[in-house]
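Appendix B, record 7
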Amino acid sequence: MVKINQLLEINYGFLVQIMYFRIKFFLNMKKLSVIVFTVFVLIISLTSHLYADDNLKASIQNVKEGLIENSIRKFLNIFEDNCYLSLNNGTTGYFTKNRIYYIMENYLEQYKITECDLNSTNLDGNITNVAGKILYIYNGVRYTSDIYLSFKNISEKWYISQLIIN
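Structure tokens (predicted):
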């Protein structure tokens, strides 16, 4: 009879150990799944940020090319629906894309931009400010002006919310 009790105690202790290791394994698996999920979310967010950064660089490049080629069509699609313009010809205010097209078309006809250097970038969350210099010819005379662009990130795409040429 002693042997049967000893066997039962051993089996009972063995079952407790098995349950302990199963619970420990389950908790480790739960931690592992949380870690895997966190890493997955981190990778997705970093990838989307890199895509947004490439999109911003492409938008800045489109603005440069459009200004130098005197073609508003090159970057009209990246203006926000209600954008602030302040130009050195006296035009100032908030305008729709349609109105911006005609304003910038007239501006680029009068002010022939020959060089555009957008080199200073200040990233602040969903808003990025870009500054630089432009060289242009107006009535046969060369001038230099400062240019400031403010980009706003909307749905992983960058739009111009402000364009200032002083």
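Remarks on this record: The chain is about 50% helix and 35% strand. Confidence is low (pLDDT under 50) at residues 48-52.
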